[in-house]
């Protein structure tokens, strides 16, 4: 399941990263939404790396090369934090005015750094050759705390991403920007799937701690599927929104000319 889901995500991520990076480079001289374009390209890039590391053969290869157990999982989780943080920066640049933009950016960067700073010591003190940082080892307190820190951040950031995307989708729809509206609506739905992923995995960890877990087999199917759907839908939706903004700008330039 993981290999199929995250393999598809990797392919979608490569296409989205190439298209987004090309767009950011082409419009590098335009000051409007410069942060958003760069953050989107970074987000797609780190997401692609993260889902690639989650593919089982790649995961095993990296651990063999580094000689470090769970190195691929640590890399994938760090990429997920950077992915969510970069998307926040992109949407903040789209949504907020310049008076509050810097403070909003600094706050989200600080949150991401704090989460990464909390995850790394937990990983170092917990990791052992026989352990994996998955729900299958939820009986290990260090694994549970590490995953809950990571999942809480994912839930918070995906919640904000869904809120901002849904608001911008309605605004774009009122202005008649169909492609942008549909893309942002798809992104909002993807963010909801991201929250569902965090709840799915997090609820198993909490219920396992309370000694009443639901079947691990179901969690190992549902959580990767939700993560994969969220990733594909978010990249697709933001790419649609990017195309919509380009079409709208082109029409505006033609009217001005």
Description:
The protein is globular. The relative contact order is 0.12. 84% of the residues lie in helices and 0% in strands. It is an all-alpha fold and 257 residues long.
The number of helices is 8
Query: Could you state the oligomeric state of the chains shown?
Result: single chain
Protein structure class? mainly alpha
N- to C-terminal distance: 53 Å
Following the backbone from N to C, one meets helices and strands in this order, namely HHHHHHHH
Low-pLDDT segments: none
- Rg, rounded, reads 19 Å
In short:
The protein has helices spanning 2-26, 34-53, 56-66, 71-95, 98-126, 141-174, 178-209, 216-256. The chain is mostly helical.
Task: Record the SSE blueprint.
Elements: H1 2-26, H2 34-53, H3 56-66, H4 71-95, H5 98-126, H6 141-174, H7 178-209, H8 216-256
Helix pairs in contact: 1-2, 1-8, 2-4, 4-5, 4-6, 5-6, 6-7, 7-8
